Description:
alpha/beta, eight-stranded mixed β-sheet
Amino acid sequence: MLSRQLGKRLLAYETPFYLYDTALLRQTLESVVYESRRYDYKVHYAIKANYDDRILSIIREFGLGIDCASGNELRKAIETGFDPKGIVYAGVGKRDHELRYAIEQNILAINCESVEELEVIDAMSREMGRTTDIALRINPDIDPKTNHCIDTGQADSKFGISYEEVLDNVNHIKGLRNLNIIGLHLHIGSQIRELHVFENMCNKVNVIVKNLTALGFELRFVDVGGGLGINYDMPENEPIPNFASLFAIVHNHLDIGDREVHFEFGRAIVGECGELITKVLFNKTTATGRRLAIVDASMTELIRPALYGSYHNIENITSEEEAMSKYTVVGTACESTDVFDENVGLRKTRRGDLLTIKSAGAYGMSMASRYNLHDIPSAVYGDDFE
């Protein structure tokens, strides 16, 4: 963990800030590239996880494509130099101007999530004198065994088109002449740690591909999404996710002929390389005896605990005390839910100590807000200390 190595050197920076271990990021990218090339799999980075410019420049060096979930993410990917033919664009509610921009950029595929979206893109493409490459995002109705707030592939989810609706509209969809349906996209959820879930996904994909092929769809690729989880409990024990096992499972269970297989990873690539460094402002004890460590970060810098009830490991990186105490670590926002964790075991914590909130490389900076007119934190990079 980089903050442990740097310790009190980090006191020189204004808190809170994001600390990025760029060496670990490169090691993670080396792993995903090496393991994916064993099967000739294509990997896209889900830019929603973290769109920091330095992070993106490193990811671009390793040749990954980009998975976008908004028009601005698509524009960011284009403007930071990613190859449009490595970009896919999903999202249930794409605005008209976003769709027109995507059509103009001639990206790999727009992942369509409703029959009406297919109709709209077909009409726009006809007006623009184009034929647009798209993928059908199918809802596979799979329980990913993860936090219900971040599952995306169950039957009642807002994401994707139901397989039954596609079957009911086959002739209509095939009749949209300004669309070129080149792919199939599925995504079952995020932070998946039970890898057997991916076996079930592969079995469903096999059936869907076989049936759609029989109906005349010519699919060039199948995008099976991402969702591979990281170790929030003990990040030091697993700094790089197990890409090898996931790819082996897909290789052994996916049966789609010679079509390309694509993945989208966000959290798995950047999650463990980031920490949120925050300073203790005050200590106090409530009337019920609960000991609080009040820090200068809040839900505005890392909303996941308040939004999802998510866990992040916390550590005091500057205290020299041996004694441990239990603290509830709370932030500065004017919200009762602005709590990072309850009953955290920390070395005795005093005003001015630095705490690290680990595994904050994904969905920290990218979900930050200016609520209470907080400033957006700066970033510090491991490369700066070499």
